């Protein structure tokens, strides 16, 4: 009982990124348990997959409309959830340096929805998918929205890749993911790659054209597009953080701050003049 209470307390005190990872892991474990118990009756199927995976058949989808979101919390195997959680963690941490926890949730959910719609359209339009139409599971569409949204906002940020310890610009990594999806559209998991592209499209369009507007498609998550007042991470090869002051009204001083931040997002902290660095440092102390 104490262990359960500790887990509950840890979940409640966690940030949105950690909660998303915890939920995905919990659902995966529940799915394994249902498969194990159903195997006692000779079926080896999971009711989670049956009722919450996104079916490719439109008639079946009409009876399970919630699956347009729920499929984003299911996974087909250990490696599937492992790599999805790794990329969600890496890009989720970077995302919340510039956006809010609620925006992270909205990107995840709306990316999942856009990915699901792209999957349904592709599976019911292209002749190559006219045969067997398996359902889709996985968080990849929601994660793609976060990755591409981040890359659109700070394309020149240099991200350190663990293990191999190299730095790569975020937009290079995002482009690699997109190209891999494009060249795999007619492969065995073509529907899944359409889903990734659907999530990526949402992430790009929102940040590019609606970044200053309220993201209130879900009424319970209003006012989610406000900038998070956090430290601004630099884009040169270090783990240092450069402080920035809170957002105020668009005074001349604020406009100058915005110009400097935009310059950092485009070209990196090292591109600033000494005067701009001193100005940003002084504002960070206020």
TrEMBL record:
Lipid biosynthesis listed as a keyword: no
Membrane topology of this protein: Multi-pass membrane protein
UniProt-recorded name of the protein: Rhomboid family protein
Domain named Peptidase S54 rhomboid: residues: 65-209
SUPFAM superfamilies documented for this protein: Rhomboid-like
InterPro entries per the UniProt record, alphabetical: DUF6576, Peptidase_S54_rhomboid_dom, Rhomboid-like_sf, Rhomboid_protease_S54
Keywords from the named record: Hydrolase, Membrane, Transmembrane, Transmembrane helix
Domain of life: Bacteria
A UniProt-annotated Pfam family: Rhomboid
Chief localisation class: membrane
Transmembrane residue ranges: 21-41, 68-92, 104-123, 135-154, 166-187
Similarity field: Belongs to the peptidase S54 family.
GO cellular component: membrane
């Amino acid at each position: 009982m104490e262990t359960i209470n500790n887990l509950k307390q840890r979940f409640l005190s966690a940030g949105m990124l950690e909660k998303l990872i915890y939920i995905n892991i919990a659902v995966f474990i529940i799915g394994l348990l249902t498969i194990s118990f159903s195997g006692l009756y000779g079926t080896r199927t999971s009711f989670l997959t049956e009722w919450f995976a996104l079916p490719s058949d439109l008639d079946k989808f009409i009876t399970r409309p919630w699956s347009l979101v729920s499929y984003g919390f299911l996974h087909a195997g250990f490696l599937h959830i492992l790599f999805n959680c790794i990329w969600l963690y890496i890009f989720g941490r970077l995302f919340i340096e510039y956006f809010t926890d609620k925006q992270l949730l909205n990107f995840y959910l709306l990316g999942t929805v856009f990915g699901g719609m792209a999957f349904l359209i592709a599976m019911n339009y292209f002749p190559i998918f006219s045969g067997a139409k398996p359902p889709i599971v996985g968080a990849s569409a929601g994660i793609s929205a976060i990755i591409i949204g981040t890359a659109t906002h700070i394309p020149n940020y240099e991200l350190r890749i663990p293990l191999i310890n190299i730095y790569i610009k975020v937009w290079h990594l995002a482009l690699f993911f997109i190209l891999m999806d494009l060249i795999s559209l007619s492969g065995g998991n073509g529907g899944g790659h359409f889903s990734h592209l659907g999530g990526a499209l949402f992430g790009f369009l929102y940040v590019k054209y609606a970044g200053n507007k309220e993201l209130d498609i879900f009424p319970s998550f209003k006012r989610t597009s406000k900038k998070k007042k956090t430290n601004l991470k630099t884009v040169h090869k270090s783990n240092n953080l450069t402080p920035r002051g809170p957002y105020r009204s668009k005074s001349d001083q604020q406009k100058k701050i915005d110009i400097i931040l935009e310059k950092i997002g485009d070209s990196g902290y090292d591109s600033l003049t000494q005067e701009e660095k001193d100005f940003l440092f002084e504002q960070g102390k206020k």
